[in-house]
């Protein structure tokens, strides 16, 4: 398996992987253009590829706000899970944050126990003293 930077021609496979793993919804606006914009601002979308098959098997989308790195869309194809590929991808993601000199933040669903265990094994700590709020359409609050 090879870990490399995302290329625009990867989008079809990346989107398909995100759908298979359940982390993609059209409402989130995760388009090829958004990926390029985030990367241009200092982020990085890593893909893991099976070179023999030419298949993208995992992703880790790292965005940077100048203060911390956020890991989004961390996904491993179900047929490749449990084989250490997620850990390899997570370590590469941590190296990106280290090189930026920033902490790495992520969100994970409580019921996704394999991911929770992976993150905890790498030293991630859970912050239980607050909830996360998000508004998908900020303009909806402004329409008075």
Topology:
Blueprint: E1 2-5, H1 11-20, H2 32-40, E2 44-50, E3 55-64, E4 69-76, H3 85-100, E5 104-106, H4 113-121, H5 139-142
Parallel strand pairs: 4-5
Antiparallel strand pairs: 1-2, 2-3, 3-4
Descriptive notes:
This protein is an alpha+beta fold and 144 residues long. The protein is 33% helix and 22% strand. It has a 5-stranded mixed beta sheet, sandwiched between helices. The longest helix is centred in the middle third of the chain and has 16 residues, at 85-100. The radius of gyration is 16 Å and the shape is globular. The N and C termini lie far apart (52 Å).
In short, what is this structure?
This protein has 144 residues and is of the alpha+beta class. The chain contains 5 helices and 5 strands. A 5-stranded mixed sheet has the order 1-2-3-4-5, sandwiched between helices.
Structural class: alpha+beta
Major sheet description = 5 strands, mixed
In round numbers, the mean pLDDT is: 88
Number of strands: 5
**Order of strands side by side in the largest beta sheet?**
1-2-3-4-5
Please indicate the count of domains: 1
Helix content: 25-40%
CATH homologous superfamily placement? Gcn5-related N-acetyltransferase (GNAT)
What's the N-to-C terminus distance? Answer: 52 Å
- CATH fold title: Aminopeptidase
**Name given to the CATH architecture:** 3-Layer(aba) Sandwich
